[in-house]
Amino acid sequence: MILAIPKELGEREKRVALTPETVGKLSDKGLDIRIETAAGMPANYLDETYQEAGASIVSDRNELFSEADILISIQTPPQKDLGQMKAGSILICFLWALQNEETVNLLKEKEITALGMDAIPRISRAQNMDALSSMSSIAGYKAALMGANKLDRYMPMMMTAAGTIAPAKVLVLGAGVAGLQAIATAKRLGAVVEAFDIRPTVKEQVESLGATFVEVPDLDEESETEGGYAKELAEDEQERQRQVIHEHAKKSDIIITTALIPGKPAPLLITKEMVQDMHAGAVIVDLAAEQGGNCELTEAGTTQSINEVNIVGPLNIPSMLAYHASQMYSKNMMALLNHLLEDGEPTFDFEDEITLNTTITHQGEIISPMLKNN
Ligand code: NAD
């Protein structure tokens, strides 16, 4: 069974799908692992380390794709490469199937079995495969560092001979995986942290990290789907939320926004007027930049200064910590492979919730209930 890892071609992409440590563990299970020349280099994993772990280095990309039984990557490879894959082979990567109909059709026509790392269900049993959580956690951590780095003030309280310095005030909007890690990191840096999320269950988690939960009165208690994701707020609730955030934004040094609603544009939480009322030198780090932004003024991929407020709209943050992001993704990938492989052969049991939800196409059919019900 040939397992292949190509070099990532995406702009800003420095991660690699398998690290040498995981290659070693999978080689021991009898897999023939092939990796494209210098695929790990951007994340500081060297070809010789892969070789020592048991992988062969392949310089011909076409050969890598055409001979693979299982091909794993971070981002979906370009269609030209997918066109080289043989019928019955398996592709595992972030597929974002709902947004990539053309690619899904190609995979179906070519009878490639495609699994989406973004489609792994958020259930306890699949926690060790949950690459979305791994990457969100990195994004939250880095967002707090980016905010601190851009700020012209200290984060912690300082008692110095030149007087006492007050700690920075950080407001985190959206306390899912990324938001909670942003809170934890800002707290470790010594800031005073407040956070808000529309899911009431989050309050306890926010408080357990030592942050204060911001209350917005009269929000619908049923703001959470069965899968634990947020529902879109009604227009009057959104307006009430913005009024509360406005008051807290005026006093904040850093705002980190992470709010997302699956399948919808990112909710607008910070308006132009709120930015105008923030103090000079304040920083907004908008982790939802890729999905349209939680701040009205965010421009994805840029840092701007508007009314002396710095608005950072970062893209592909996990790639900025490529070494550990690759390590975490690689471990998530290995857990999924272990779930699928029986005596070294992939098996697809669609009675199993993880396999069913993660498999997008198989033998020329759409399997994913998410796609079928869309
Ligand atoms: P996400 O990235 O989809 O959204 C980020 C956060 O934004 C969420 O907490 C959401 O409630 C919040 N949000 C949405 N609209 C908002 C608004 N208008 N104002 C403020 N906040 C808003 O979420 P995620 O981090 O991927 O987590 C989604 C869910 O999955 C959570 O319930 C999480 O606990 C759960 N989860 C479970 C597991 C597991 O059990 N294995 C693993 C990971 C995540």
From TrEMBL:
GO molecular function, one term: proton-translocating NAD(P)+ transhydrogenase activity
Function in brief: The transhydrogenation between NADH and NADP is coupled to respiration and ATP hydrolysis and functions as a proton pump across the membrane.
Keyword match rRNA-binding: no
Catalyses which reaction(s): NAD(+) + NADPH + H(+)(in) = NADH + NADP(+) + H(+)(out)
Classification via PANTHER family: NAD(P) TRANSHYDROGENASE (PTHR10160), PROTON-TRANSLOCATING NAD(P)(+) TRANSHYDROGENASE (PTHR10160:SF19)
Protein name (Swiss-Prot/TrEMBL): NAD(P) transhydrogenase subunit alpha part 1
Coiled coil: none
Keywords: NAD, NADP, Nucleotide-binding, Oxidoreductase, Translocase
Domain named Alanine dehydrogenase/pyridine nucleotide transhydrogenase N-terminal: residues: 4-139
Organism: Fodinibius halophilus
UniProt-annotated stretches for the region Disordered: 220-240
KW Translocase (keyword) present: yes
The family this protein is said to belong to: Belongs to the AlaDH/PNT family.
Gene Ontology cellular component annotations, sorted alphabetically: plasma membrane
GO biological processes: NADPH regeneration
InterPro entries membership: Ala_DH/PNT_CS2, AlaDH/PNT_N, AlaDH/PNT_NAD(H)-bd, NAD(P)-bd_dom_sf
Entry EC number(s): 7.1.1.1
Alanine dehydrogenase/pyridine nucleotide transhydrogenase NAD(H)-binding domain: residues covered: 148-313
